[in-house]
Design goal:
Length: about 475
């Protein structure tokens, strides 16, 4: 295998350079490299053993920030971002759109972001800094805006404001880097990625009748008759309550989900809440000690699907609470002889704090998280459709935890306080996001709740969404 020699400026940001260079070159491109420091201000890449001494020089903006301004507002990209029509210079690059927002960068002496000579290429785009900004969610430590659930909203993000939330911009930056390396050293070979769909299901309410009071059930029956005009659903609720049979519960759509996944050659992951310290905010007060929940989890595993943790509402900032919740899940897995090579999941309500939540998951021993999508707008919150190891911006350390970025949540698409899309609009938007993932051989992570499949028309929507993304 060929080895790249990456020379970086000798400054404060060695840990940050180490992290992002490894992620881009090894994890994403599968290239070998050695790292060295030099007395300069750019990132320079050469090929070991190349006697022609060709070199790629890349501007370094973010990691040239004065240390007193690191993680401060003055280090954020300036809006509006400049755009680069890349295909004028690099027509071979795979992109979602031909013009690319430049998160960090500067024009070169020729007035462009690209310059190539016989033995050199000079790029004015700070690829490493820009990708670091997106993958670590750098802005979310600095920008204080939050919604009613203390979540960083999409509309406060650079990606939303600059119109690139619907494209995996990190993947596009990686493609630029690859095109430049390939121009200089045509013999290089990269890692190949294959498009995948990961179906995930947060189990907030395994039942909507079985564990409910008659008062609540009758209210829902009234809504079935008056608002939803669904007589059969109202009868199903009453029948389930009278017979006290969870198998008849309208929210018991787990076999439907697994049947559809298996029909399409896919594996579903079901994330369970194991404790409910926030009361109704933590969904139905179901217990892992419930015989029916244990039967359900056992059936999920035996059908070849996976289980994971849906960490409770307030646990995103509470390491001990997450630990207790994960221990409950592991104890049940051992009781049921469930053996998985890894465990992951998602925070309830997509509540997440940078870098506290990632660190809590790391300390608990979880292998991966899939929380990072915005609740109010679907798209690429981290700018990428590959899973990747995460970085703690405060301790300045790489973690063993991987992020599997969530791309679409059902509630985000249809929620009246979120995107509030019509069905056809949602199909088009999801299909666009899927095409972007497919372009880079990424993983399309979808979250669909079992309670979003109660009525026939809801099941039909889910079928059509799957048809559009597989």
């Amino acid at each position: 295998m060929s080895t790249l020699i990456v020379s970086i400026p000798e400054n404060f940001y060695l840990q940050e350079f180490n992290y992002i260079i490894k992620v881009l070159l090894i994890d994403f491109l599968g290239l070998d490299y050695t790292l060295e420091m030099y007395d300069g201000d750019k990132v320079k890449i050469r090929l070991k053993g190349d006697e022609s001494d060709k070199a790629l020089s890349i501007e370094n903006i973010l990691f040239n920030t004065p240390t007193e301004e690191w993680l401060k507002e003055s280090s954020l990209p300036l809006s509006p971002l400049p755009r680069w029509n890349i295909l004028d210079d690099l027509p071979e690059v795979r992109l979602c759109k031909k013009d690319l927002p430049i998160i960090y960068g500067r024009l070169l002496s020729n007035g462009r972001y690209f310059d190539q000579g016989k033995n050199f290429i000079h790029l004015g785009v700070d690829i490493f800094g820009s990708c670091f900004f997106m993958l670590t969610r750098y802005e979310e430590i600095i920008v204080s805006e939050r919604d009613e659930h203390e979540r960083f909203p999409a509309k406060a993000s650079l990606a939303y404001r600059e119109g690139f939330l619907s494209r995996p911009i990190v993947n596009e930056y990686v493609e630029i880097l690859w095109a430049l390396l390939k121009r200089l050293w045509p013999g290089l070979e990269r890692k190949q990625h294959s498009y995948k769909v990961l179906l995930t299901h947060d189990v907030d309410h395994p039942f909507v009748v079985y564990d409910q009071s008659w008062y609540q059930i009758l209210r829902n029956v009234s809504a079935d008759l008056i608002n939803r005009k669904n007589i059969s659903l109202s009868f199903q609720r009453i029948k389930c309550k009278v017979k006290n049979d969870p198998k008849l519960d309208p929210a018991n759509t787990f076999d439907f989900i697994m049947d559809l996944s298996e029909k399409n050659g896919l594996q579903s992951e079901f994330y369970f809440i194991t404790d409910h310290p926030a009361g109704t905010l933590d969904g139905s007060d179901y217990s892992l000690e419930s015989p029916y929940i244990q039967v359900l989890i056992d059936r999920i595993y035996k059908r070849g699907h996976r289980i994971g943790l849906h960490a409770s509402y307030n646990s995103y900032c509470d390491s001990q609470q997450i630990k207790r919740e994960f221990e409950k899940l592991i104890m049940l897995a051992e009781k049921l002889s469930i053996k998985q090579d890894s465990y992951g999941g998602r925070q309830h309500y997509l509540r997440w704090k940078n870098p506290t939540t990632w660190q809590n998951w790391e300390d608990t021993g979880l292998n991966y998280d899939s929380t990072l999508s915005f609740a109010d707008y679907a798209g690429f919150r981290t700018g990428v459709c590959y899973e990747y190891p995460v970085y703690n911006l405060v301790t300045r350390k790489s973690l063993n935890l991987f992020e599997k970025p969530l791309i679409v949540m059902d509630v985000t698409l249809f929620g009246s306080s979120y995107m509030n899309l019509k069905v056809e609009e949602s199909f088009r938007y999801v299909e666009h996001l899927s095409k972007c993932c497919r372009l880079f051989g990424g993983t399309f992570v979808l979250l669909w709740h079992n309670t979003s499949l109660i009525e026939k028309w809801q099941k039909n929507i889910y079928r059509d969404v799957l048809y559009n993304i597989i």
